[in-house]
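To whoever is on call:

I kicked off a structure prediction for a single chain this morning and the downstream step that reads the tokens threw a length-mismatch warning. I double-checked the sequence; it's 285 residues and nothing unusual in it as far as I can see. Pasting both halves so you can look.
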Amino acid sequence: MLLIPVSLLTGIDYPVASQNHLANWIEVTMDLANKTAFITGGASGLGLATARNFVAAGANVMLFDLNTESLEQAAKEFGAQSIWQAGDVADESAVASAIATTKEKFGTVHINVNSAGIGGAARTVGKNGPMPLEKFEHIVRVNLIGTFNVLRLCAEVMQLNEPVTEDGERGVIINVASIAAFDGQTGQAGYSASKGGIVAMTLPIARDLGKRGIRVNTIAPGVFETPLLSRAPDEVKEPLIAITQFPKRLGHPDEFAVEAAHIVTCGYLNGETIRLDAGIRMPAI
């Protein structure tokens, strides 16, 4: 929680005794303690790291993912501060059911982190002809439509929350894009389109929801040490590390989690996409 003296915001100097009174300080950030976060992709990678960080800060979490076994393991780690439900982010009824379960257990949703997503490389036209349309559609459905589906249903709940800051903040949404939204490589037409869509909709959704006291931001991660990449051979990872600026390594999921927490607690951050990538710029291929 960040408290700022009223005098700094109003220009009015209060007597010292008055300044020491809590009533003359304005709460300007959302505190993670006793808040509830709905986290997609929460069973592994960036989503799991974020859930772990939030729980350590006193938040409750709903973990929504497809992997039942991983969900059970994570929930066991987090104990009473967590619940989970398996489902597809692009399935309206599955997401609505998970949100209803979250409300029943924890009362409401304050934070939504959308880290669920899939990859899938294919050239627009390859050796065997054009990219199958169903492949492109599937990537966009999970990454872009799934993100929008979850955030809109979470926002419906958030708007009913009592304000938690003097600004009237009721909720925070954090979407996960990728540097592929900006530096899409050969074969990433579908993936870049899906992540670019997340970046493009960040500001208009922030404008839509601002009047309801909900902030919306996006993180565009670079190359992180996720379960998928950790299994990759060195000949795959080393060229990626070589084109980072500093530090010369893959990102740690914990660093993503720290940025997610920063977005929640920085009340003036809204409508923005943050590249979290050690200065990497991806080549064409």
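Update from on-call: the warning came from a stale cache, not from the record. Cleared it. Sanity check on the structure: The first strand starts at residue 3 and ends at 5.
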